[in-house]
């Protein structure tokens, strides 16, 4: 009977907790731009001095671009709402000047400068305060003889083609009443006129500590060494039968003298992590017990190009006949261990573990999962009979994620239950129905932060909830998911897409027939 690990039942699996109260609704989109932007023609407080006439820019032609005048981005910085009003919010509403070439650029520049006297998105000042805008400019000095310098807002080298004989621009004298109000002591606004309001992005939650230090989370699997050894023997036997049939290695029989002996070394040709070395000895034990195998490394060792991981010696025909089966198994399993180690290295220090899936090679599942462990990863369930994983098709069949979660918990009989969700709404429903281990399917890192943040709020009422991420994961994104707060990363590529680690079995000695007899 095949060994199975005991699973810890999900906490409170038989008595799902009551559904949490309604959560906070989604953030509202930005308000209408006209409500948040002070227009140039807006009525000033009774004691405020009139606004100065806008300075005139020297612009060479109607198709010249005002620096920073392209505003296609989101007004709220989030990209979820307000896209259609972004331009209106930046330039004061639907009546503001456009940048499509139909509006004189001098007038447009003056309008932008006038609107920026009140920062976008800030509340209108109380008339009783009557303070000067933080970015107000000093009144210009009366004109003197000769040409007046151009507006400093225009770059000096922005118009190399300006005709030298353009008439100078004269600024009218300042006729305003001197300002006697109390100087403004507020912190100056350092934004440029075209800055959109900054919306804070939620910070990633700190890494969560595993409940038992380095021990397994509920649902992780500990392989039985005896089960792995039995699976390896079965795989080797089938592989040799497939390769040799009943005739044997006809090439070795034709070219290698009967009774010749030899020695071969298994060499590493690329850096990586080795796994499956036990299979080398099993191949030759089954093929010819006279062949001696000495391993010089252990599964999980990090190896470098040129390292020797095993030495095989004995009857030369048998050494060569078992070469390909031994290499097929060791190179494949070492590739799984090497890829796993790369993911483990990518999330080092975050507290997140890398876990495999059931996307394994038929017949090789236990060996591949042992290779994942050799690379530093963790195993998910061994088969469908070990634990319950509620996926999208189960949800569809049950009529919803809440219904599927409750049904799974009722039918678990002590087995671990994990529920896959593909939205924050499904996450809330699954936890309310009793899920204490959720799999976020195809969430990106940003939405993972939101999900983990919400889960930590729910944990106040429901206790510890484990979270795993799957979909969209590769070596370039693994750390972002880990830093977003995931307990586990489910990586199917560990077993279905791992490249082989390059190894070779090279003869380094051929001797005479052993004892002078044939084989």
Notable traits:
single chain, 519 residues, disordered N terminus, alpha/beta, 11% strand, six-stranded parallel β-sheet, 15 helices, four-stranded antiparallel β-sheet
Placed side by side, the strands forming the largest sheet appear as 6-11-10-9-8-7
- Report the portion of residues in β strands: 5-15%
Q: What oligomeric assembly is this protein in? A: single chain
Task: Please count the helical segments.
Answer: 15
Radius of gyration: 36 Å
**What's the total count of β strands?**
12
How much is the average pLDDT? 74
Question: Pairing-aware structural class of the strands and helices?
Answer: alpha/beta
Largest sheet: 6 strands, parallel
Low-confidence stretches: 1-44, 56-103, 116-125, 127-137, 142-164, 186-202, 207-214
Note the run of SSEs as H and E. HHHHHEEHEEEHHEHEHHEHEHEHEHE
Shape: elongated
DSSP helix fraction: 25-40%
Strand-helix topology:
Elements: H1 33-36, H2 86-91, H3 105-115, H4 225-244, H5 250-255, E1 261-268, E2 272-273, H6 278-287, E3 292-295, E4 302-303, E5 308-315, H7 316-321, H8 323-346, E6 353-355, H9 365-374, E7 388-390, H10 392-398, H11 401-411, E8 417-421, H12 424-432, E9 437-441, H13 445-462, E10 466-470, H14 478-483, E11 488-490, H15 493-496, E12 503-511
Parallel strand pairs: 6-11, 7-8, 8-9, 9-10, 10-11
Antiparallel strand pairs: 1-5, 1-12, 2-4, 3-5
Helix pairs in contact: 4-6, 6-8, 8-9, 10-11, 12-13
């Amino acid at each position: 009977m095949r060994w199975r690990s005991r699973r810890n039942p999900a906490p409170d699996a038989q008595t799902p907790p009551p559904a949490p109260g309604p959560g906070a609704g989604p953030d509202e989109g930005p308000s209408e731009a006209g409500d948040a932007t002070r227009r140039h023609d807006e009525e000033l407080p009774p004691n405020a001095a009139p606004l100065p006439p806008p300075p005139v820019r020297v612009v060479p032609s109607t198709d010249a671009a005002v620096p920073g005048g392209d505003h296609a981005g989101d007004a709220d910085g989030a990209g979820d709402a307000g896209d259609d009003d972004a331009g209106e919010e930046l330039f004061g509403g639907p009546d503001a000047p456009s940048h499509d070439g139909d509006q004189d650029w001098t007038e447009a520049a003056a309008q932008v400068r006038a609107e920026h006297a009140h920062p976008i998105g800030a509340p209108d000042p109380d008339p009783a305060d009557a303070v000067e805008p933080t970015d107000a400019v000093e009144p210009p000095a009366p004109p003197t003889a000769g040409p007046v310098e151009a507006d400093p807002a225009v770059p000096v080298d922005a118009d190399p083609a300006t005709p030298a004989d353009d008439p100078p621009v004269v600024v009218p004298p300042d006729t305003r009443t001197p300002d006697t109000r109390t100087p403004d002591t507020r912190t100056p606004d350092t934004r440029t006129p075209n800055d959109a309001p900054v919306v804070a992005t939620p910070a990633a939650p700190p890494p969560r500590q595993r409940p038992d230090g380095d021990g397994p989370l509920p649902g992780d699997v500990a392989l039985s060494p005896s089960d792995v050894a039995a699976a390896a023997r079965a795989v080797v036997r089938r592989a040799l039968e497939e390769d040799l049939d009943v005739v044997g290695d006809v090439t070795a029989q034709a070219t290698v003298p009967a009774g010749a002996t030899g020695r071969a070394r298994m060499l590493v040709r690329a850096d990586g992590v080795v796994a499956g070395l036990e299979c080398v000895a099993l191949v030759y034990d089954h093929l010819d017990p006279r062949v001696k195998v000495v391993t010089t490394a252990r599964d999980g060792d990090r190896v470098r190009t040129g390292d020797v991981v095993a030495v095989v010696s004995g009857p030369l025909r048998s050494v060569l006949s078992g070469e390909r089966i031994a290499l097929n198994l060791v190179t494949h399993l070492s590739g799984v261990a090497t890829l796993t180690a790369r993911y483990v290295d990518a999330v080092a220090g975050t507290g997140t573990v890398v876990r495999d899936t059931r996307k394994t090679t038929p017949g090789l599942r236990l060996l591949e999962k042992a290779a994942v462990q050799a690379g530093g990863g963790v195993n998910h369930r061994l088969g469908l009979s070990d634990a319950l994983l509620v996926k999208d098709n189960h949800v569809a069949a049950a009529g919803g994620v809440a219904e599927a979660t409750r049904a799974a918990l009722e039918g678990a009989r002590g087995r671990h239950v994990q529920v896959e969700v593909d939205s924050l709404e499904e996450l809330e429903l699954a936890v309310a129905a009793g899920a204490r281990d959720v799999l976020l399917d195809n969430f990106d890192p940003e939405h993972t932060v939101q999900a983990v943040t919400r889960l930590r709020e729910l944990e106040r009422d429901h206790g510890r909830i484990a979270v795993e991420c799957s979909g969209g994961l590769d070596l370039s994104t693994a750390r972002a998911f880990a830093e977003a707060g995931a307990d586990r990363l489910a990586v199917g590529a560990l077993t279905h897409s791992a490249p082989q680690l390059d190894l070779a079995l090279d003869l380094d000695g051929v001797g005479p027939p052993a004892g002078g007899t044939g084989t």
